[in-house]
Design a protein that fits this description.
Elements: H1 7-19, H2 28-53, H3 55-75
Length: 83
């Protein structure tokens, strides 16, 4: 199978090939490596996306809890210091 790529993609594939010690003819081994890598990390990516989508809600809850605590502390009667 022959894959046509432009100069920029060829350089990127060469870099991936060198960084991961991929040996073989052309870039077919590099592309096979990338496919295996993607399949392996696809589930992790889904978990990260799920948690990132919940970030706004977590920040809002945390902010409201911190604000509530600050207001409660401001409204507490002041403790008398030792005489």
């Amino acid at each position: 199978m022959r894959i046509e790529v432009d100069k920029e993609i060829k350089e990127e594939l060469d870099q991936i090939k060198a960084e991961n010690y991929i040996f073989g003819k052309g870039h077919s081994e590099t592309i096979a490596f990338l496919i295996r890598h993607y399949k392996t990390h696809e589930k992790l990516e889904e978990v990260i996306k799920k948690h990132l989508s919940e970030t706004r809600e977590i920040i809002e809850k945390s902010f409201l809890n911190a604000l509530r605590t600050a207001i409660i502390n401001l409204l507490k009667p002041r403790e008398e210091s030792a005489k």
